[in-house]
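call fold(seq) -> tokens
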Amino acid sequence: MINANSALFTDLTSEEGATVSGGGLQLQVKSIQCIKAGADIVGNDETMLKINGEQAWKGSMGAGSFKLFEPRLTRPVEVGNFVGLYDEDGIFSRDDFMGGFNITGVKGPTTVKLSGSGSTYQVTYRVIEVDDF
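ret:
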């Protein structure tokens, strides 16, 4: 039997839950810079930024490439979420991991150096608290 109280509850995504609870955290990526592209034997990296496994951005980057996000690339996040850079390798092989970091809470503007699979990148970002306004 369904009563009026049980009809008020439902399953929510983390983003919906943050909105209902009055806010949450937001990742704001300002830029990605490729210092060394080495994940592929020849050519540029097919760089992907993933947040908890979901692709947030993709672009071809070689040494010296700089991607400035205007407006900032923003996504709702939670403490413990993982942000990673990968080189896309297509459907027949696994994407190469090029480094990453965990969301630990509110953080002012930060630049991190990420390395892996022969590539080196710098990512500039911040994590802010957002309210429900």
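Residues 2-10, 12-21 have pLDDT under 50 and may be disordered.
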